[in-house]
């Protein structure tokens, strides 16, 4: 049988309202009394009624998290960081995976908004013209996409991409490819712009291919196109595409590294397990998740009302998939 507030109150010899105030922290209670109440509640196995608490406080102690594809290795580190940070602040996370369907983001966000104290939307695929519908669901924070009028946590890939192109140029590569991600991806537009800028600055010829979905199979498809373009190096939109490219090149007898250099983006756990290991641009996914939690809770608690943009930097992690350009 569940232990109630009244049970704890009788055990300590105080009123139920005093127990409620002591456990909720909403009002001051004598410290000695508070400690007695907390100790008794723990020993008796008391668990607060979340429904009742939400009715009286107007808060649900829940954060909503929406991601495009939970199977994509870019997102689990963010999810894990959001859950860890939320737990440290007394919150539970509800997760929705929209399976790369942009139309579902707004629907899921509206449903979750009724139940949570704040929303975090990661790499939203919603078209620009519909973003205002998401912004209305305050408090809300976007990760990996800049949204006008809203707080965003951005991963600035430009520095990591600059390092990647410089790395390839220093190895003697003069003609490289960029494998585009999905057209609907804000990240892809930022990454493509950064690759173009870096190649122009360094005098490297750039060949763009795609768009491709962030999937290993898409990288397999891209490999045949890359092979036909006689490229010596490739930067892929993400690690999944890069890994698919490497697998197909190996099937065709092309040695990754000696014959063609490959760089991914995300620095996912898979990049260090591939053969050869994948040179990749590290994206601070965990940090972006923790930052998003702090921002959305600050918005919900009224600590700030002005939209804020937080930028996190990337860096290149060099592994075995890049090598000096082969002589053609």
CATH uppermost class of the largest domain: Alpha Beta
CATH superfamily of the largest domain: Response regulator
Quote the average pLDDT.
89
How many H/I helices? 12
Shape descriptor: elongated
The CATH topology of the largest domain: Rossmann fold
Q: Which sequence of SSEs, written as H and E, runs from N to C? A: HHHHEHEHEHEEHEHEHEHEEHEE
DSSP E strands, number:
12
Q: Tell me about the biggest sheet?
A: 6 strands, parallel
Amino- and carboxy-terminal Cα gap: 78 Å
Question: Nearest-angstrom radius of gyration?
Answer: 25 Å
CATH architecture of the largest domain: 3-Layer(aba) Sandwich
Structural class determined from secondary elements: alpha/beta
Please estimate the helix content.
40-55%
Explained architecture:
The chain is 43% helix and 18% strand. The protein is α/β, with parallel strands linked by helices and 328 residues long. It folds into three domains: 5-57, 434 Repressor (Amino-terminal Domain), CATH 1.10.260.40; 62-156 and 285-314, Rossmann fold (3-Layer(aba) Sandwich); 158-283, Rossmann fold. It has a six-stranded parallel β-sheet with strand order 2-1-3-4-5-11, with helices on both faces. Strands 7-6-8-9-10-12 form a six-stranded mixed β-sheet, with helices on both faces. Helix 1 (5-12) packs across helix 2 (16-24), helix 5 crosses helix 12 (285-300) and helix 8 packs parallel to helix 9. The radius of gyration is 25 Å and the shape is elongated.
């Amino acid at each position: 049988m569940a232990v109630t507030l009244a049970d704890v109150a009788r055990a300590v010899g105080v009123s139920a309202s005093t127990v409620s105030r002591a456990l909720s922290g909403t009002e001051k209670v004598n410290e000695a009394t508070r400690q007695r109440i907390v100790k008794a509640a723990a020993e008796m196995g008391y668990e607060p009624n979340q429904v009742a608490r939400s009715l009286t406080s107007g808060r649900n102690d829940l954060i909503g998290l929406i991601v495009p594809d939970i199977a994509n290795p870019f997102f689990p580190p963010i999810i894990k960081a959001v859950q860890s940070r939320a737990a440290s602040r007394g919150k539970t996370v509800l997760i929705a995976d929209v399976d790369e369907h942009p139309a579902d983001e707004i629907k899921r966000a509206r449903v979750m908004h009724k139940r949570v104290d704040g929303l975090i939307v990661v790499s939203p695929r919603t078209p620009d013209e519909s973003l205002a519908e998401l912004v209305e669901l305050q408090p809300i924070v976007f990760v990996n996409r800049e949204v006008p009028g809203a707080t965003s946590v951005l991963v600035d890939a430009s520095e990591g991409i600059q390092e990647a192109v410089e790395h390839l140029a220093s190895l003697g590569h003069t003609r490289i490819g960029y494998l585009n991600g999905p057209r609907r991806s804000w990240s892809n537009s930022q990454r493509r712009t950064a690759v173009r800028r870096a190649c122009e600055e360094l005098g490297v010829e750039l060949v763009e291919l795609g768009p491709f979905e962030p999937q290993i199979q898409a990288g397999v498809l891209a490999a045949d196109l890359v092979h036909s373009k006689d490229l010596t190096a490739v930067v892929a939109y993400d690690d999944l595409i890069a890994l698919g490219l490497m697998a197909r090149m190996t099937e065709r007898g092309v040695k990754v590294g000696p014959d063609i250099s490959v760089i991914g983006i995300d620095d996912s756990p898979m990049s260090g397990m591939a053969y050869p290991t994948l040179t990749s641009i590290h994206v601070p996914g965990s940090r972006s998740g923790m930052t998003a939690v702090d921002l959305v809770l600050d918005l919900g608690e009224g600590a700030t009302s002005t939209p804020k943009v937080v930028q996190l930097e990337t860096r290149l992690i060099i592994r075995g998939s890049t090598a000096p350009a082969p002589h053609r």
